[in-house]
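*Target chain*
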Amino acid sequence: MKGRQRGSGDPLIRAVASREGDRVTTLELFFDLAFVFAFTQLSRLMAQQHDALGILQALLILALLWWAWTAYGWLSNIAHADQGVVRVAMIIGMTAMFVAGIVVLEAYDDLPDGLFGPLVFVGAYLVARITHAIVFVWLAAPELRRRTLITVVLSVVPSGALLTAGAVLGAPWQIWCTIAAVVIEPIVSYRTSVGIAWPVRSIAHFTERHGLIVILALGESVLGIGTGASTEPISVAILLGVVLSMLICIALWWAYFTRLAGDAERALTAVSAADRGRAATDAYTYLHLALVGGIVLAALGLEVAMAHAESNEGLGLFGAAALSGGVACYLAGTAAFARRLFGRWNVVRLVIAAAFVALAPVLGILSPLMALASVVGLLIVLLIAERIWTSAGSEPYTSAHSVS
């Protein structure tokens, strides 16, 4: 589809090609709300399980949600999301993913009575993926249609079969089948895309789309703060905890949107058209999963801390690991994202991320408020160190050549 419409005789199947400068539509924002709800359910799943297995289960579901979201992100970059057949696909996908979000808590353990939760989750997920696959292959440029079909079939069919088998077999096979399904997606996409110049129709749309999902994930963190704070009557300790938690969210926002997002969009624009699809896939489709996963983990830690804000006992290793590990994952993800687009590691972020991992046991001993204050302090050190580094002439992100 090169600047033309397909099926222009029928408004229900018409597709309008995207062009450079197109921005995110309201339908895409509406679409993302289903994923925000799913993110909140993942936090509930981890909080209820309250162990490493629960965190692993939630992160695997997050990866599945992410592959679905990025698939539709590429689709809406090829053609306008709010017109014709793409609009129909977006609405079906949004509804299916909302259903998947509703049954997240039953994705591994079916509740008595009602439908079988694990299969409902897999079915809803596959409805979204198959709908996307049909429309995406149909809209692909003629010279890319065969490769697009191969990529879609080799990723969706085996992963769907594994997820279905896992849901039927149950524990312990389900977790291994889900891991395999999650791993298949990036491997197949990467291998089948070698030597192919996948088009990025609108860089502005593509980068804005991923920035908005980061914002929405941060919004889920704010919801986590409110959920934890609302369990007890308001007090000075809770107010202080709210302020500290919000400062953490603000610092994460600052680290991406003030220090990185704008330069990243310009760097992607500078990449040649032949290499732009690969750079966009690596930097946004793959590496942004670390950012969103880090935020979801950190949100769990914030919720645990706020639920015990008035306690003088230690935060505990579970909450501390989620909080510090989530922030570390986020910072390392932004460093890898920058490395892919700018060809330079941000050493400051990597060092601070390592510090968060190492200090997790210490944060678990501290009271919730002291743990939150320590995280805020480390993030302030990060932002100040980056400012000093920049003032000294070592720009953390930009370099003479972007990496294609």
Notes: The radius of gyration is 21 Å. Residues 202-404 form one domain.
